[in-house]
Structure formats: structure tokens, C-alpha cells
Model the fold of this input.
Amino acid sequence: MWKTLGVLLTVVVLVLMDKLMVEGFYTYTDPDPAGITNGGNLTVSITGRAADVLGKSNRDEVRLYCPGNVTTVNNYVDKWLVVDVVANKTTLPLHGMINVGPIINMRVPCQLRFYAHDTRGFFFRVSFQPNDIPVSFKGGPADPLQGHLAMTSSVTEMRATWVSADISDNDPSLWYMKASSSDTPKKIQAGAKTYAAGDMCGLTATTVSAIAFRDPGIIYSAVMTGLEPNTKYTYWYGAGNLSAISQKRIFTAPQSTTVAGTQTRCHIVAFADMGAWGGEHVSTQPWDSAAKSVVDLILKKWITPGQRVDLISHVGDISYALGQGFVWERFFFRVEPIATLVPYHVAIGNHEYDHVGHPSPKDPSGVEVSYNPSWGNYGNDSRGECGVPMERRFTMPSSPGSNGVFWYSHNVANVHMVVISTEHDISPGSTQARWLEQDLAGVNRNTQPWVIVGGHRSLYNNVYYDRVDGNLPVQLYLRQYLGALFAEYQVNVYLSGHYHNYVRTCPLDVHANCSSHGGGTTYITVGTGGGIAEPNTFSKPYWVQYNMTGSYGFVLFESTSDEQAEITFIASQTGQVMDRTTITRSKSANKTNGGGVGSGSGDEPQPTGVSAAALAGICIACIVLTTVIAAGVLYLGANRAKFGGSRRFSARASRGFVQFENQDTADEVD
Done:
């Protein structure tokens, strides 16, 4: 027996040695050896024995490691299948060129490595001479990237933010001037901030590695002041003492927000749940092809032709980094083309904030204990980020009582825009609830006749509506707390995501009845920014006027006048208008606190009014039912040997979610 094992071991060693000796040669064919631009593709010609090996299996891979000296095989930041990136698939095995990308400049040198499979299933690395394929970037570490704009509390200002390596000794600055002017540009010194692994609340975010926490660079920011309303400006930024300067871009300064009765038109684009999905490309679905279609359509059809977009509102679940720093880098590469031309505002989502620290002194929102009510599904969805990357990377407008990226408000032309955090306590008497009511009470409906509230979680969504899971109790509690408040102050639209589908309700009044004669709030779920679509499983409550899944896109809100606005959903992969409705309001409702009313495009059969007390009763019933099911599940799980069966029960008590599972389990993605 020992002799046989020895022979087998010798054979294995010889096979592995043979595989390790498989070598190839490469030449760059595009671009030149100076490096690629951020987000560019790299084309390489492969020759030698590597060309004979690669591509024989449809599982052979090209992996990208950043930095290039990573020694752990699985710590790659992207990968492609050889069969998908070879220039001519008819020439496999490879014998030719491969083209991979986009490759993101993360301020470190990177490396491409090749892995092949033989007929027996062995997985081995194919080496190259004189070394594996290095990847460098033309802009280098100082290249100013990830640019995005944001409004401030003043319509005469605009903030620009970008990221690079530390250029503090090389004059980090921003320059701007009227687009039609030949005057000397104004120069603003940029401020700087960053964050470290130790600033966050837990794993994965606090783990230092190529695929967890990585140096986010220095986040620079500067505010352009003295802007004239509705005027085009050219701006650029970077290191004044270096050649690392961004391209020049043009934005339009905000419209005036203080003149009543001007029939101002305001255009707001909204979506949620975008992300830079996954850790790799696959044959049919690159990591962000859906998100790319959303960005491309906004740029091509609205911004580039000169149609005005006043604001882009991304209402939560921004990058889906989940503690993986490289995903933030990829996300900003994707949205930069639109975020550098139009203010790009965000709401906090569960995948940016939710954590389980008790207490949580690192939480940048200032709460002592993270929000984890027993009836909800608030868990560790941020994988320890607890809002830190969001708070450092984005600076939103401030107002009295606001809380950074977590809750804030500002005016956009004739719209008062409010952003709340559905990941924090918003029940009556809470800090956020007191701020929200005070803010809504102070709106001047003569100059801002329209009020829009944005928050990540939906109040009305009909995916799995009849299923008892952690999302339904959250919906019902949010309705109980917010529905009456929105009715009292006549909020016109509530924008949300969380569910990866599109839903629009009829305008709902304080009793959750559809309003056929004005009044009410239209609730919109637009979790269609690029996240994996929800299954096509709908119930049809009376309040649903339109719903769809399996398509990506965005909502366009257009206040065509002070009395009328259009809401349109556009599918990004086809450019088709899938849903359009008109809401109206009455001038007679103009007053300081509240006053806006809306109406939908059609009537629905009406149930009797549903009071807040009834909703509370429904919530309590859901909680009791969930508790009973969970108790039974845990009992069965503890005694499953007694009951037998090939499947197992799983109770996710911390997320309020109970279901049957097969042996292969996966996290919920909301």
C-alpha cells in the first residue's frame, strides 16, 4: 500500500511540475506601455505554450490582482473567462489576442494572471516570461477620479468632490468660470478627508486585504460660490503643481428657489439599488451591465442633448460594497459620467449602514446603539461599514437639525426635497421624526409647491406582499409612522427602493384610500438601478396602479408647472417609456406648512378606510405570526433527526425571516 501511495504521489508531483512549467509570452497591442486610462481595456497578444493551453476549457480564467503582488489566489478584484475575452473564438485554444476591461485605477499597480484547467480538472496557473502581465495607468496614483457634484444649502453654490492619492503638497485645487467667459478662472483650495479600517464597525469592513478594506485614497472637496442661477459653468480639479488635472466639464447652476408663481419646471431623475455587482465578470452578465444601461441612457437622452436635469437622487443601496473597498472604486467609475454634470444626491440604504454594534461609538450618524427592532429585518447588511464610507465620500446639503447623509433637506427649483433614513428610528418622538415634522411644517408652498420625500425602504410594495417576512412588518410600521405625517403636510411623492422592482401606487390619503379628486401621496418604488431583479411574484392590492420587474431604469419627475407634474418610468435597456402618470395640485392649498395636493391618472376600487390603529393591529398580528412560526421552526430544527427529510429548516431570527432552505443557502439581497 505504501509503495502504491508513493508512486501516486510521484505522479502528482510530476504533473504539477509540468503544469508549473507551462509558460507563455505576451506583447501589448493596445494601448502603449505607458498604461491605460481609468476604466480602459487592455489588449494583449499571447504566444508560446500558454496559447496552446488557454481556452481548451470554458472555465479558463484571466484574473486581475490589485495590487499586483497579492499572494492569495482568491484575492482578485475582477476576472474574465478566456472564452469571453479572446478576440477570435474560432481560434481557440487561444493563439491570439485577449481584450479585458474595464480596469479601474485604484492608485496601485495591478497584474493579470491566467489560470487553466486540464482534461482531468486540474486548476493551474499559467506563467509568463519575463513575469506575469503588469497593468499600469497613465494618470498614476495622483489622477483625480470619482468626481461628483452636490448642491449645498445655497443656490449660489455647488460642491465638487473627487479622489486621488495624497497630493497635499501639490496644491489640491478646483478651478471654475462661466462657460461663456474668457476671464481668468477662480481657484478654490480643496479640503481633504479619508477613513481607515479602524473607523468602521466590524467585519468585513475592518479586514485589511485587497478584497476587503483597502486604502480609499484622499477624498478632496471644494465649493464653488457666487454662481448665477441657471448659468453654465466650466470646472476642473486636481493637483495644481502636477499634470494630474481632471478634464474640463460643464454644469448648470441651480435655478432660483425664491420667486413664487414663475411656472418653474424642475426635472429630477431617481433610482435606487444600483451597485457595482459581484467580484467578477461572467459570460452573460458583466458586473454592472444593468447599471451601465441606466447611466448611459440618462447621459445620452437627457444630459448630453442639453435637456435639463436639476438633480439625480439615488435613494439607497449605492455601491453594494459590503465592506469590499474596491467595489466603491468601481461604482464611482460607473456614475462619474453623469455625477460630474448633475448634482448626485444619495439616501442611506441598509447595505451602506445596517450593523449590529451594541453600542456603536464609531457610527457616524451619532446614535449610541444601532437600530435593530425585533419586528424588522435590520441586521449586518453593510458588513461592518456602518455608513462610514458613505459619510466620507458624499457631502449633502445641510439644514437646521439635519444629519449629514442620513437625513437632510433642500430646495430644487420649485420642489422641496427631503431625504430620510429608514435605517434609523423614525417613530414619533425620535430625533429624526421631530426633525422631519419640523422640516415639513416649514415648507413655503408658494415657492416650493411640490414636496418629495426620499427614503430607501418602501412603504407600499407588492412583491411577496402576502408572505410573512421581515420586509412586510417594516412596510407596515413605516406606514403607521409616516402615512399620517405625509397626509398632514401633503407630501406629493415618496421615492424609495429596497425591492428591486418598479411600483407606483394611486395617490393615497390618510386612510390609505385612493384619492380620485386630488390630495394624497403617490408612493413609488424604483429599485431598478442595476441590482438583481426581484422574482416576478406579485399580489395586486387595490393601491397598485403599475408594477413591473425584470427591467432596469429610472423615474423622471417633471414639475411642468406649479400645479401639475409628470412621473415617468423609462426602461434603460430599451429606452421605452413603461409608465407615465400626471399628478396635480391646487393653488388654493398654498401655505407655509403643507398645502400641496396630488391626484393620480385613474381610480381604483376603494376599500373602507384603514386607520393607523388598524395598521398597527396588522403589524402586531404579523409579529405574533412570525414569532409562532419561528418558534416552531426552531423546535423542528432542533429535532430534525426525529422528523427526517432531505431539507432543513432555517430561522433567520435576527432578520425576522423564516423559510425552508436547500442545503446550498444564500443571503437575501434587498
